[in-house]
Specification:
The structure holds two protein chains of two kinds. By secondary structure, chain A is α/β, with parallel strands linked by helices. Chain A has one domain (2-229): Rossmann fold, CATH 3.40.50.620. Chain A has helices spanning 37-53, 68-76, 95-107, 128-136, 194-202, 222-229, 259-268, and strands at 2-7, 10-11, 33-34, 56-63, 81-86, 113-117, 140-144, 158-165, 168-175, 178-182, 206-209, 235-240, 250-254. The longest helix of chain A is centred in the first third of the chain and has 17 residues, at 37-53. Residues 214-231 of chain A have low confidence and may be disordered. By secondary structure, chain B is an alpha/beta fold. Helix content of chain B is 27%, strand content 27%. Chain B contains nine helices and 17 strands. The longest helix of chain B has 19 residues, at 23-41. Mean pLDDT of chain B is 90; it is low at 42-55. Strand 13 of chain A pairs parallel with strand 17 (332-335) of chain B, so a sheet runs across the interface.
């Protein structure tokens, strides 16, 4: 089974989010980078399928050269090929343009299955997988938490993708080739092995120019790159951290001694009569 | 302008209970009404409550009715009552599509958008809402903005929106240039607000001719077992984190949740440790909750977890660490070991329910 997994480099967000001075990006001077938890599960799912049925996993990302770090992390987990669709650092590419760029990768290979995370943890657009599927003319299911597969792919094969939604188990039968976006919980991703990491260090990464033509040379101004990428997509003007209610909890007491006061509060809130 | 709003329904016919519009869809209608009102009044619209009940021109789209030529009302009375209370003037009752088929649903919305003077389609930012609107965006080549908290029509096909990034930890102010705006609504950030005056609802039957290919991906639905869906809509959630310590440690939390008529939710570390299934995870990559009370036990409060519980009306934290980040989000706190506090609380609640027994 030939599987393409699409991932995205995102900042590792730990404590409070800090923005850059122009309020158009997260300040990442002090943060590391990773891929979204949903995407870690997509990579794991792909590697497990290939371990069972043979074939190979290719991982692709749309991002700056630095995103090779995330591709190598996926190679360490069992992917065997990697494609970087290169963009200008600091330039955001919206979901329509992202799907178009990923389409050029997906259509260029003989893939049975394309896996993505349900949504990227940073922009949370909830649409790249579906737009990619429409460009490919393939069926798609999203938010999938179980993907049992019975055979190794090829013509006439199908997968059964399921999720639980509002108390109902929804199962979608999809003929291959298809696109599936998965959510955390579909599996428990493995840690990379030492041989995996060593292999990933040396593995070649295929670079292709992105929608803004970034690899064509640094001469291209960020200005034109920006205008090229924003066609059709929602245009971000600025970011802000929501005004979280700055509160400090009223301490009801220490340990079990606080229980009578706690019960009073529960009564006051109407959850205990 | 007409703003179409995709409606999800709770309590299907025959399941007992009264059918009504799902809470997430009531929130979506609230934003849809603000958007429609902004088109006429050009006034900015508040993020939360206090929204005026201006005649908004919101048209609800409800799927799942029986075919038009079969007996039975196309829309449940409880659903119609909810829609009227939220100021919806028109309901498009779509029949003939068996079950949930996202692409077929998107085709129906596409047809409604082109056949009428509609300028926007809004849905709840749920798995169905995001999925159907992403399909609609793909087949119409229109941009789609997920998890909006505000939307204002600026005229000339320009919409000013505010939407969630990082599951609501960050807000994006953005401009959407399009002949029609496709939006989903952040269900934990937009409060459901009924219209000032109930509307009179006109029901339109829609029997679309659907291409077989659009039905190829369709959900086969089976009950998921007890409690599968209740986390997102529970009124009380008892949360357990690393401080619970083990899978067995959840027994008192389950007992407390049952006493409070609620359910158990967990932090990410708990599912990573395998103590509880991922279906119970609250947070950015789990479920977003909007209970009246979230009782967070042994949860320090990583921001990915806060993203999932910031929609709670009240938060009480039980934690050994008075400096835990959760303390700056909680309304009340008990400093102490949850394994002492919760059993004592359970005993006190039992005493209260049956004194002297």
């Amino acid at each position: 089974m030939e599987i393409l997994v699409c991932v995205k480099r995102v900042p590792t967000v730990g404590g409070a989010i800090t923005l850059t001075a122009d309020r158009r990006a997260i300040d990442t001077k002090a943060s590391g980078f990773t891929i979204s938890p949903h995407e870690e599960c997509a990579v794991e799912e792909a590697v497990r399928l290939v371990e069972r049925f043979g074939g190979s996993v290719t991982v692709a990302t749309l991002g700056p050269v630095a995103a090779e770090e995330q591709l190598r992390a996926c190679l360490a987990l069992g992917a065997s090929a990697a494609v970087l669709v290169e963009t200008e650092p600091g330039v955001e590419v919206g979901p329509i343009a992202t799907a178009a760029a990923l389409h050029s990768v997906a259509a260029g290979g003989a893939f049975d299955l394309v896996l993505l995370g349900n949504e990227a943890s940073d922009t949370g657009d909830y649409q790249v997988g579906i737009r990619l599927a429409h460009l490919l003319g393939w069926p798609v299911a999203t938010g999938i938490k179980a993907l049992p597969v019975d055979d190794a792919g090829g013509s006439g094969s199908s997968v059964s993708a399921s999720r639980t939604y509002r108390g109902v188990l929804e199962t979608f039968a999809l003929p291959l080739p298809c696109v599936v976006t998965v959510k955390e919980g579909i599996n428990l991703p493995r840690y990379p092995s030492l041989p995996g990491r060593l292999r990933a260090k040396r593995a070649p990464i295929t670079r292709v120019p992105g929608p803004d033509g970034a690899s064509d040379g640094a001469a291209q101004s960020a200005q034109s790159a920006q205008s090229a990428q924003s066609v059709g997509d929602v245009r971000m003007t600025s970011l802000r951290v929501p005004d979280a209610p700055k509160k400090q909890a009223t301490v009801l007491g220490q340990g079990a001694a606080a229980v009578p006061k706690l019960v009073d509060v529960l009564v006051e809130l109407g959850v205990v009569s | 302008m007409t703003v179409f709003c995709l409606i999800e329904v709770d309590g299907a016919a025959g399941a007992g209970g009264v059918a009504g519009v799902a809470d997430a869809s009531l929130r979506a209608i609230t934003l849809a009404r603000c958007l429609a009102a902004s088109a006429t009044s050009a006034t900015s619209v508040s993020e939360s409550a206090g929204v005026s009940g201006a005649v908004g021109g919101v048209a609800a789209v409800v799927f799942g009715g029986p075919p038009a030529d079969e007996p039975g009302s196309a829309v449940e009375p409880g659903v119609l009552a909810d829609l009227a209370a939220y100021g919806v003037t028109d309901v498009y009752a779509v029949s003939g599509i068996d079950g949930y088929a996202p692409l077929a649903w998107a085709r129906v919305l596409q047809a409604l958008l082109s056949e009428t003077s509609g300028h926007a389609v809004v849905a709840a930012g749920t798995e169905h809402g995001n999925e159907v609107l992403a399909h609609l965006g793909a087949i119409t080549a229109l941009p789609m903005a997920a998890n909006c908290t505000q939307a204002v029509d600026k005229g000339d096909g320009e919409y000013a929106i505010v939407r969630q990034r990082w599951a609501g930890l960050l807000l994006e102010e953005a401009v959407l240039d399009a002949p029609a705006a496709l939006l989903t609504v952040a269900t934990d950030a937009v409060a459901p607000v009924p219209a000032e005056a109930a509307a009179t609802v006109t029901v339109h039957q829609v029997s679309p001719s659907v291409d077989g290919g659009d039905l190829a991906v369709r959900a086969v639905e089976t009950p998921a077992g007890a409690g599968g869906a209740s986390l997102a809509t529970a009124r009380v959630v008892v949360g357990g984190g690393r401080g619970v310590g083990s899978a067995d440690g959840f027994a008192p939390l389950e007992e407390l949740a049952a006493l409070l008529g609620g359910v158990v939710g967990v932090s990410r570390v708990v599912t990573s440790e395998g103590w509880r299934p991922h279906t119970q995870q609250v947070g950015q990559t789990g479920t977003k909750i909007t209970p009246d009370l979230y009782l967070a036990c042994g949860i320090s409060g990583a921001i990915q977890h806060i993203a999932g519980c910031s929609g709670a009306k009240n938060i009480i934290a039980i934690n050994t660490d008075p400096a835990a980040p959760m303390m700056t989000r909680a309304d009340y706190a008990v400093i102490g070991n949850l394994h002492e506090v919760i059993p004592a609380l359970v005993t006190a609640l039992r005493e209260r329910a049956a004194p002297g027994s």
